Every structure is written in structure tokens, then in C-alpha cells.
Amino acid sequence: MAVRRAAIQLVLMVLLYFSPGVQCFFERISCTISSDCNCDFKPNIRGLEWDLYKNLYGQHLAQDTVSEEVANFLQKESPDRPLVLSFHGGSGTGKTLVSSMLGRHLYGTAMGSPYIHQFVPTLHFPSPDRVQQYRLELKDWVQGNLTACARSIFIFDEMENMPPGVIDILKPFLGPSHTVFGTNYRKAIYIFISTIGEEVIHRMALETRQAGKEREEIRLVDLEDAISQAVFNNSRSGFFHSSIIQEKLLTSFVPFLPLGRRHVERCARRELCQRGECQRTDVVEAVGGAVVYMPEQGQHFSSKGCKSVPAKVNLFL
């Protein structure tokens, strides 16, 4: 019997060594039942920090919060709960850019990994009349992907279009329990992206400017509670009256501040450099002058952040 067992072990070792497919299969099992999980997970924290500080403009709160929370989370071999971040701010301020950075520096690809899962409400949850169906489907999707890899990343975009009630099905996955429905889930990362709360963020940025202070003086603590109340009380929010908010299951709210002209021009310069046209300062200035700014009195902030920059560069190049 012992000889037979040793022979089986030898065969398995050979298969694992010579067959990537078999190796992947056993890695997936390991991801589910043990604390050792690879699943192509190749975190590069220094690379993430460098990317955030080099390519994300005007967002000191997002830079500091994301880099610190991700680093702290990954330092724990067995975290007591998943990492849950909620990005808030106006269009074109960098929310989607940061989610792509996370994918690139945790899995080596922006969104191409089979372990990064993106949900868009208008595509996946379009009808407010089918909330119960969506809840069941979402639970199955998340549970199935966590079974395949405990290091899965789930990105929920456009939370302002998510039918209220759907996202609460994730509540058991976001707390401190060891397993949910038989699946170890505490190594997962959840990212929620929304424009809800941008009014609160814009007001703080404007008041700070009018007081003669630098935007970098705005602290996370100045905005977290106000954003939480905004997403909880807004009937357009996917977190409207959500128990996830009530029970404080989000690791952190991450504010994205409105961008000024200097930030827009930096976006334009980056876009030009990607096209091999770094020297075109005339285009940079033209793009900065062509963007619509708000409020009407003062015109301090771009109404669409850097979202229209590629189109403006095409226009002036």
C-alpha cells in the first residue's frame, strides 16, 4: 500500500512539473482550500505606488489611501476580511485609471486577467424590476470566481446606475467570517466606482480654494462621513439604504477631487508623449484653454476632468 501511495505521489509530481495545465488545476484547488494562492497573482506594490504618484494628477487622497490600504492588506498572509474600496468623484478624475493600475500591478495586466471581474450595471443589471434575479446571479458569480481563485478582484463600475438592493447580496462576502457558502473569501479585493458624492467633494475643494488653502490640505477625514451619507441617502445610488454602508463593511471611501487647468494640461502632455509628440507645448496650452471649467464664477475646475483630453488633442494636433 505504501509503495502504491508513493508511486501515485511520484506521478503527480511529474504531472505538475511537466504540465502547466495540470499545475494550474492544482493551484486553483489550493486557492480555495489553503492559505497559499498564486492564481497568477504577482503584486508589485512599489510599481503601483510609482504609477499612482507619476500618472495620477491632483489626487493626493487617492494616491495615499489606495497605496496604503493595498500595501497593508497584502502584508497580511491571512487577512481577517477582504479589501473593499469605494471610489467617488466626477467624470474624468482618475477612478477608472486607478482600477486599471490595480489590475496591472497585481496581476500584470490592466483588465485581461481571468481573475479580474468587472461589472457594469447598464450591461449586467439593466432592469430595476429584476433585483431578486440579479442578486442570485451576482452571488453565484462571486462565489464561483472565489472558488476558482481566492485572490479575485471584483470591480463594480457606475454604481450610480446599480439598482438599489442588488449589491447587498455581497454583505456576507465583505465581513470578517472565515468562509461563506464553503468558500474562503478573505483575500479578495472589491472596488466600487461612482459619481455619487461628487457634489460634496466639489464643495470641499471649492471652499478650500476660496479660503486660500492648497488642495493638498484636504484630509480624508474631512470627506469620508459626508460621502458615506451621500451614497446612503441618494436614491440613485447602488448603496441606497444599504446594510453594507450601515454596518461599515467598506474599508475606505476614496475621494477624487475635481481637476484644475494645470492637471488638464498634464493629461494633455501625457497623451501627446504617448503619441511621440512631447514637444508640442502649443497643443498642451490649446487643450487647457478649450476645456469647460466650473463654477461659472471663478471657473476653477474642469467640468469633465481629463475625459475630453484625447479628443481635444486630436483637434489641435
Automatic annotation (TrEMBL):
Domain Torsin-1A C-terminal: 262-314
Protein name (record): Torsin
Family: Belongs to the ClpA/ClpB family. Torsin subfamily.
Chain residues that bind ATP: G89, G90, S91, G92, T93, G94, K95, T96
Chief place where the protein resides: endoplasmic reticulum
Annotated signal sequence range: 1-24
Domain of life: Eukaryota
Name of the gene encoding the protein in the UniProt record: TOR2A
UniProt keyword Lipid metabolism present: no
InterPro entries: ClpA/B, P-loop_NTPase, TOR1A_C, Torsin, Torsin_1/2
GO terms of molecular function: ATP binding; ATP hydrolysis activity
Gene Ontology CC terms: endoplasmic reticulum lumen; nuclear envelope
Location in or out of the cell: Endoplasmic reticulum lumen
